[in-house]
Here is the input.
Amino acid sequence: MPHLNTESLVPPDPSSTAGWRAPRAGAPVRGQVTVPASKSLTNRYLLLAALAEGPSVVVNPLHSRDSRLMLQALQSLGATIEHLQDWQGTGEDAVRVTPLPAQLRSGEAMVDCGLAGTVMRFLPAVAALTGLRTAFDGDPEARVRPMGAVLEGLGALGAEITAEDTAGSAAIEYLPFTVHAPEGISGGDITIDASASSQFVSGLLLAAPRFAQGLTLHHSGTQVPSLEHVEMTLSVLDELGVEVSSESPYTWRVEPGPIPAFTVRVEPDLSNAGPFLCAAVVTAGEVTMRGWPKRSTQIGRRWIQLLRDFGAEVSTAQEAGGDTLTLTVRGPEKIVSPGTVDGTAELTPTVAALAALAEGETKFTSVQHLRGHETDRIAALVAEIRRLGGGIEETDDGFRIFSPVTHGGMVKSYADHRMATFGAVLGLALDAVTVEDISCTSKTMPDFPAMWLKLVRGEAADTAGVGDFAS
Ligand SMILES: O=C(O)C1=C[C@@H](OP(=O)(O)O)[C@@H](O)[C@H](O)C1
Ligand SMILES: C=C(OP(=O)(O)O)C(=O)O
Here is the structure.
């Protein structure tokens, strides 16, 4: 399919009067983009700051619903949060976190997880360290996201996990639930099945330096998805002075010990850079991003190879200071499928937008756990690509796209930021794409609609003007 087709004969979906009309690129998109900070790093640093020895400062944090929920939850557990403007004259803002009281407390706390995996999977272990009886709940969509393994792990470490409608010893698999460990958690050696989410592993390892015996964690299932995120957890702990090791695949060890107070600056979110870089790919345009970290534990570092695999030219230039690159992506005349893409985890909906515009079949493998993301992303991608005339079917561990989308229409968002941005990418190349609810991008990128319009119009798309942890 020609990706700058302006002559689509298919009329817009009649329901498209509602929702957000995705801008169609009348010409190759050319521009520069600055994306906000990484969700995964921001929420790890905020959590670890709350467990540190003294006040810590997280510079250039992400301002989004997920990070706001993390801050609110840490406050509810006893941390103090201060927002700092223009950190040391850098022009960047920061958050100072005064940690949770070190001693066990009695009382109650509540954690609203929204739809944030990093809140619902990372904070039960932190709550168990406080002694507080802590109630966890979230959005209706969050109540179907798997929670079992992290709760089972905490249970094995001595925490009491209860849920109103779960009888007796039945395992608790979903929100809502209550975590209570009046004696705290002393740690030890446990095995969980983390095949449904890497966040089960991260959620236990992040709190583990504060367990008296630390933690040795084994995974019992076939595969841990999104291993990059476990690598990120280990690397952040190591960077902050915690002793971590992994002697064999799927076994991790965190030694007990204090987390020294720290100051850290958060990298841009490379996963969220994806849709902007793809704008160049699907319009034969050129998009530049400054500040791309030379080394990163983010899964979004894979964009450089992924975009090349779809036919784009990606070049990098070293920036002053040496740690960052300027990335330039030039889109091809025709998007070509690489055949197979494996284990793309949270990048998958964005990669699927490229595959849905490419010549040739693309098979997505090792992504079965996407069924437990913000929505069942496999079902959502199948439904939306079919709605736009594409050929797609589910497979055992993912899906395959075998013919490109042919026309615009309504793209449902399923409360999922990445389904919304998937619709935006397709909207550049198809006439009359409407995204049902673009506001769900507030989960990780509240300014997405304005940034997107700026980029498509050829203005510099940056995050200026994003408010204080607004949703
Ligand atoms: O640890 C993290 O920050 C994340 C881990 C991944 O979860 P899954 O392993 O469930 O994919 C990823 O998809 C999510 O967006 C963020
Ligand atoms: C899976 C995602 O998020 P969460 O942190 O809520 O799991 C995502 O951002 O794609």
